[in-house]
Amino acid sequence: MRAAAFVLLGIIGAGPALAQGAECSFYFGVENLEADDAVALGRINKLTPRTNFVKPSVIQKGCPNASAACRDKAYLVPGDEVVVIGSGDAFVCASYTGAKGQGTEGFLPRAAVTLVQNPPPAPLDGWIGRWRGSPEQEIVIAKGAGPDGLKVTGDATYGALDPERVKRGAVNLGSLDGEATLRGTNLSFAMGENGSVAFDKGEEYDCKVRLRRLGPYLLVKDNTMCGGMNVTFTGIYRRR
To answer: For 22, 36, 73, 181, which has the most beta carbons within 10 A of its beta carbon?
Structure first.
């Protein structure tokens, strides 16, 4: 696995610090989702009627910058909320997921994104429901045991959208099935041989997952041990 793309040094201005020339990526840019400074919630302000995403250097050499060549077609409007993954002098790395689970990730002009200070933690029933990440990721959260217990189940695939992989039976599968106690904005567990255990009690090859509620989003980070090759639940989800 590649090293994390961001050096997360704390929330400075509009989010965690962005390493110079870094790739913009939730998958690679966030190590410990429970860390207070891992991510931030941002809201598109009224600087312009619409704010276009800006391409990273892996898509367009020399980007991000304010030139037309770096401007992406995807855009947001005032009031849209994003997950801020890292920030530099002129741009923030951010991810937006729509109501149907479609996601857009990239750079946004820092001036167009206002950091939401101290967003309140979601109540218990704000976790419950069916959540969609990418088209190959779905998580269902239900009430668990005890006053703050939550039960998490989920399914993820790799290759289910590729007709050729489906035809030859090469779709890889993954699943979640665990229960844990809500701790503020965070929920975490490992899937041991005999059921759920605390995240830090999981063995090296157990499926271990952290979940965090932030604004309208459910953020998920796993250890890539929750299914077959290339299957992951890591992502940014919206409730269906």
So the answer is: 22
